Amino acid sequence: MKLLVTGSAGFVAGYLVQELLAHGHEVVGIDNYSKYGRVEKSYDHDPHYHFVEGDCKDTALMKELVEDCDQVVAIAAMIGGITYFHTYAYSLLAENERITAATFDAAVWAHKHKHLQKINVLSSSMVYECASRFPSREGDELQCPPPLSTYGFQKLACEYFAKGAWEQHRLPYTVIRPFNCVGTGEQRAKNEKEILSGNVRLAMSHVVPDLVQKVYKGQDPLHILGSGEQIRHYTYGGDLAEGIRLCIEKEAAVNEDFNLSVAQSTTVKELAVLIWKKLNGDRPLSFVSDPAYAYDVQKRVPSVEKAKKLLGFEAKTSLETTLDEVVPWICRQADLGNI
Q1: Which residues of the chain are under the pLDDT cut of 70?
Q2: Which residues pair with residue 93 across a beta bridge?
Q3: C-alpha–C-alpha distance, residues 221 and 215, integer Å
Q4: How many CB atoms lie within 10 A of CB 41?
């Protein structure tokens, strides 16, 4: 297929575009480099990848790019770590709504007047921000209170865009909810606010790169946000890319929503111990708990059965294996001042 991928210079898209090209698809990418600035990707010179530097809010440009595409993969958004949610609380809502509306306007047009078959929307595990049933199944986002963060609320709104475009315009969709993507390629955002965590300044506010930096820079005792008992499902970017590709390709994914995640729960403290051992061996580890942020959800556990049943998808890469790749990369980027 020929696919339009928005936000193609971003973190998750870096894994996805490579996956799509490897499976014979043609990819048109659009990004305005607003997050990291200009970045190089391994697939930049692939003959089946066509990149356009532009703004996804430009509906005319989006129509031009999508007019001969089979599907859209809507990834572009303002996104960051937990401090980002606070610092840009309004912009996350306003800017991402504009991006979403322009993308859907172009997709609806292309479905009516060209041959666009479907839009794939990258939502977020944050739609389950206020969930009380675990593991959280697809559909629970409609039963629990709406997300408290503007980011989570807007991601839920993206899902309603998809439902509305189907109801009114019969544009088929798939809603995709990745859980805690971990991998290489994430760098210091241009507009990320620096914070002091113990004696280390950080600009990521994503738990894996932040913990790796602090351990690598010799912080001892190690500062963590809150109790460290927060539960997450850290999922390798390559596995997520496979899951997203299956959402694009499989007929069973049409008008469905999927949690894409590893099945294994991990607390922040357990994650910190894994990272500590990779860099410090058996040296004793002690913690200092810093005040948590308001949107630091204590428990986020997905059901992964639907993706397994309908897509045949399982995220199989263990956190230990993922960290074998990611920890050395983050250390190198810290040395280079990129993170």
Answers
A1: 81-83, 187-205
A2: none
A3: 9
A4: 18
